[in-house]
Amino acid sequence: MERRAWHDELSRKQVLGILAVLEHCEEAGGGKTFKEALVHAISTHFGVRDVTFFHGRTYAEIFDDPAPVLTGVAAPLLPVYHEQWRDKDVFALPRSRRVLTSCGFATLDELPRLPSPQHSYVVDYLRPNDIGTASAIHLPLADGQALVGMFDKVRSWDRSDLIAMRVLARHLRSRTTTVVVTDNPVDTLGNLTRRQLEVAELVGHGLSNAEIAERLSLSELSIKKYMSRIFDATRLRNRSELAIAVLRRDRGPRAQHRDREADAAV
Fold it and tell me: Is the pTM of this model over 0.85?
């Protein structure tokens, strides 16, 4: 049987909703404006009652966000969430993290047989606060990672809904790696030596260790040692995270200022 393309599975309204969310995000740029635009667009175009935006430098730090964007019933719950429930969040589970960081989207219904703390999170925190369903989109950002939470009293995700959200997540994730959402992002690479920074920047440009060694007239073993020291100094875990950090540095306040000057000159 011939596999149907995703756009053949979706209604016109769902396709237009995806395009509208992407357009809102494109126009928003970055910072708090981006977060609020994305939350509002998903709520408006996909009829989600409560949408949240939590950000952290790492996945684990997402749940510690002191100032997330919150809407609906989620807004007044932040103090009790931070005090009692953030470490029990269903999307903080290792298996949730695997699904979200690989596929970009997950629902509570896709997480059966929850451990006792996460089961309590659903029964004793979500349901008493009129939240019957939960889902999330994971976004890689230039200054960390984010989870966009979607909550409703009752919501049944049918096949086309799931496809629509996964398509939206895929397109968002391909765009957000250059987006900075913090007003004053920490320079992860700020403590590197000049040579370490040079190696890191070449990693950010997609070069392999062998290519970097050739470019800098060093041995490949030396580059491996530099890489180990870079990871120790930055606490980054792999080349992908390092490349994102380099991109974030390139897209920092000075680069954004240059962009604004260029825009003003047009």
Answer: no
CB 132 within 8 A of CB 152: yes
Q: Average the pLDDT over 74-98 and give the result.
A: 94
Tokens of 100: 């979200």
Sheet holding 50-56, edge to edge: 50-56, 144-152, 133-141, 105-107
CATH architecture of 6-178: 2-Layer Sandwich (3.30)
Q: Which CATH architecture has domain 194-265?
A: Orthogonal Bundle (1.10)
Question: Do residues 175 and 25 lie in contact, with contact meaning Cβ atoms separated by under 8 Å?
Answer: yes
Contact 130, 50 (CB under 8 A): no
Task: Classify 217 in phi/psi space as left (phi over 0), alpha (psi -120 to 50) or beta.
Answer: left
Output the DSSP codes for 112-176.
-S--HHHHHIIIIIIGGGT--EEEEEEEEETTEEEEEEEEESS----HHHHHHHHHHHHHHHHHG
Measured CA to CA, the distance from residue 35 to residue 46 in angstroms comes to 16
More confident site: 57 or 126:
126
Q: Please choose, from the candidates 195, 84, 68, 176, the residue with its C-alpha nearest in 3D space to the C-alpha of residue 129.
A: 84
Contact partners, residue 19, CB within 8 Å, separation at least 6: none
190 three-state secondary structure: coil
Domains of the chain: which residue ranges? Answer: 6-178, 194-265
